Amino acid sequence: MKKFLSALIVTGMLAGSMASVASAEVQPMYTQGKNSKVNVYVNGATLKVDQPAIVKNGRTLVPLRAIFEALGAEILWDEKTQTVTAKRENTVIKLQLKSKNAVVNGKTVTLDVPAESINYRTMVPVRFVSEALDAHVGWDAGTVSVFVSQYPAMSIVELGEYVSLIEEKLTALSDAAVESDTILNNYLNKKITLEQFRSQHKANLKEMAALTAEIKAVKVPDDQLAQRYANQTITLFENLYSVCELRGIVLGETTGVTRVQELTDDSKQLMLAQTAYENEFAFLEEFNFEQ
């Protein structure tokens, strides 16, 4: 499995000792599913449902209407025949409760287990989503989560190729950001003087700027997914650089309470931005596509 985000910075280092951020405001990337309930993410966003996905007899069942509508399908229900019809563009799907067979554009598709009704919601095996609407389905046992993606397989392959080109630089940039934290803590703990702090902090910022420039110089595939990832990655690290630069100014000079508050606010926004970034792209790790 290709790891797309293995070089991400750790959010905890961003606040530092100077900018105390209320961590409760930053939600975890993926939450742990409770009991037999399963988290469902569609294209990186949490799927909000009144009947959660569940694991039953070793199979993950998801609410058909909610997940199909999130993927752009229109749902019709025939009470008399207990049949669901889903339509999206040129795809028509018919599925009857308690049946293991569905019809997709006139062709019969066999489900792992029959569709069933739970709390008046039609539940189907998650793999049926992939077969019916040409989506990709991933599973993370650690967080008890299902990830559904409509991105074309080739888009994810191209993104993986791009990440492989910049991964070492991302790792080095992450290490440089951690080093910024170390320099900061050394000064606060009186292990280095103010002059040493200023010198080390300046060299650290220079290294971060150079690495960011190297990442920018790498050609990005024309694919929209890769371009969005590249733009957001660069923006995230540029904002990180600004926060590191600002806290150096706050520590190295007499700047007053206003700049300290500015640093706190900027750090908080950076942490929230990283969480949003992870929510959009981290689910891609669940997919493994070969060219």
Write the SSE topology.
Layout: H1 12-15, E1 37-42, E2 45-46, E3 53-56, E4 59-63, H2 64-70, E5 74-78, E6 83-88, E7 91-96, E8 101-104, E9 107-110, E10 116-118, E11 121-125, H3 126-133, E12 136-140, E13 145-149, H4 153-188, H5 194-217, H6 224-252, H7 257-281
Helix pairs in contact: 4-5, 4-6, 5-6, 6-7
Number of domains: 2
CATH fold assignment of the largest domain = A middle domain of Talin 1
Instruction: Show unreliable segments.
Output: 1-35
Distance between the termini: 13 Å
Alpha-beta content class: alpha+beta
Q: Report the count of strand segments.
A: 13
Radius of gyration: 24 Å
Short précis:
With 291 residues, this protein is an alpha+beta fold. It has 7 helices and 13 strands. The strands form 2 sheets. Strands 1, 2, 3, 4, 10, 11, 12 and 13 form an 8-stranded mixed sheet that branches. A 5-stranded antiparallel sheet has the order 5-6-7-8-9, covered by helices on one side.
Structure description:
By secondary structure, this protein is α+β, with helices and mostly antiparallel strands. It has seven helices and 13 strands. The chain has two domains: 113 residues, Copper amine oxidase-like, N-terminal domain (Copper Amine Oxidase, Chain A, domain 1, 2-Layer Sandwich), CATH 3.30.457.10; 134 residues, A middle domain of Talin 1, CATH 1.20.1420. Strands 1, 2, 3, 4, 10, 11, 12 and 13 form an eight-stranded mixed β-sheet that branches. A five-stranded antiparallel β-sheet has the order 5-6-7-8-9, covered by helices on one side. The N terminus is likely disordered.
